Amino acid sequence: MGYLGRFAPSPTGPLHAGSLVAALASWLDARAHGGRWLVRIEDVDTPRCVPGADQAILQQLAALGLAPDEAPRWQSQRGAHYQQALDRLVAQGLAYPCACSRKDIEDALAAQGQPRERHGELRYPGTCRDGLHGRLPRAWRLRTTSQAVRWHDRRLGPQQQDVEAAVGDFVLKRADGLWAYQLAVVVDDGAQGITDVVRGEDLADNTARQILLQRALALPTPTYLHTPLVLGPNGEKLSKQNGAAPLDTADPLAALNAAAMTLGLPAQQAPAAHALAAWVPAWHHSYNRAGD
């Protein structure tokens, strides 16, 4: 199978310096392995999406010379596919309805004497695994089992996580009717035939959950590479949520050089197009996939 990669931004605002690192890395990885590179707009979380941000992102990528090999795809247009996947999981007994609110989960964890938070998430204690007991369903969850999910990250090395112990049965469809990121990304990676996922290190914690879903839906598991993060002045990950400035593409080479330095690539003095071409062999040398 040929290499097929993707960059999948959420249109909660324009690209910033941190998101460019992931975009550049995924583009370079595809080019270094003679593959194709796609762009997918992950806009299932509609309340957080900013009108026009999707087009702004596409314009920024074009200004930087990062052109996808196919027309972009929007997740908001693919709800029927996510429903089909959920129906399949329900039929297999792997997904079930949940009536719990966030407060219900907090109270249940407190009653069990468990820590309240894990990386900002609540570990689901399995309250509705055996039925709703007369309560109305709110969300749908994947039924997990206690097992170590192992994978190899091309930058971080061997990884593993027991999803049941770490996060519990996780949400597939939210109480507000919106599709959860975990289900949407797995369904779309499978539908598009994505072979390699290159994304920011902050998303590495999602990988085990996505591998569980891939197995449940009989989808192949891509190869993963998680890139270094750009940190803000406060030491936290640079993000739209903490006020990261929109990426200035007036000087494409300057923006690309900053991203390249985060990735351990040498700065270039040539025009942006020449710089991109120069980084491809350098990336291949540093991040060549096994067997290529």
Write the layout of secondary structure elements.
Blueprint: E1 4-7, H1 17-32, E2 36-41, H2 53-63, E3 73-74, H3 79-91, E4 95-98, H4 102-111, E5 139-142, E6 148-153, E7 157-162, H5 163-166, E8 171-173, H6 181-192, E9 196-200, H7 207-216, E10 223-227, H8 252-262, H9 272-287
Parallel strand pairs: 1-2, 1-9, 2-3, 9-10
Antiparallel strand pairs: 4-5, 5-8, 6-7
Helix pairs in contact: 1-8, 1-9, 6-7, 8-9
Please describe what this structure looks like.
The protein has helices at residues 17-32, 53-63, 79-91, 102-111, 163-166, 181-192, 207-216, 252-262, 272-287; strands at 4-7, 36-41, 73-74, 95-98, 139-142, 148-153, 157-162, 171-173, 196-200, 223-227. The protein starts with a strand and ends in a 5-residue tail after the last helix. It has nine helices and ten strands. By secondary structure, the chain is of the alpha/beta class. Strands 3-2-1-9-10 form a five-stranded parallel sheet. It has a three-stranded antiparallel sheet with strand order 4-5-8. A two-stranded antiparallel ribbon has the order 6-7. Helix 7 links the parallel strand 9 (196-200) and strand 10. Helix 1 packs across helix 8 (252-262), helix 1 (17-32) crosses helix 9 (272-287) and helix 8 packs parallel to helix 9 (272-287). The longest helix is centred in the first third of the chain and has 16 residues, at 17-32. InterPro entries: Glu-Q_tRNA(Asp)_Synthase, Glu/Gln-tRNA-synth, Glu/Gln-tRNA-synth_Ib_cat-dom, GluQ/Sye, Rossmann-like_a/b/a_fold. Belongs to the class-I aminoacyl-tRNA synthetase family. GluQ subfamily. It comes from Caenimonas terrae.
